[in-house]
């Protein structure tokens, strides 16, 4: 294995780490949403809508990281 392939593998591994960080962030956001609903039950619909929007944006970041990892693995052989 030459040095170029090794660096591509390291880069792909780091790109996949966005999925891990996204999962942590979404878990924290869900916990905070539950706390917010417990404090103000009347605002549940607004809180839910904001949580879903935030999770969708965060998930987009994870998908981009996965895309970069695939590009690194299969394009830069």
Keywords:
77 residues, 88% helix, mainly alpha, single chain, F1FO ATP Synthase
Describe, in short, the structure shown.
With 77 residues, the protein is mainly α. The protein has 2 helices and no strands. The mean pLDDT is 90.
Note the gap between the termini: 11 Å
Number of domains in the coordinates?
A: 1
CATH architecture: Up-down Bundle
Report the CATH superfamily. Answer: F1F0 ATP synthase subunit C
The level 1 CATH classification is Mainly Alpha
CATH topology: F1FO ATP Synthase
Put simply, the count of helices is: 2
Q: What is the gyration radius calculated from CA atoms? A: 18 Å
Number of strands: 0
Description of the molecule:
Helix 1 packs antiparallel against helix 2. It contains two helices and no strands. The chain is mainly alpha-helical and 77 residues long. The model has no long low-confidence stretch (mean pLDDT 90). The chain has a single domain, classed as Up-down Bundle (F1FO ATP Synthase). The chain is elongated.
Please describe the topology of this protein.
Blueprint (H helix, E strand, L loop, with lengths): L2 H37 L4 H31 L3
Helix pairs in contact: 1-2
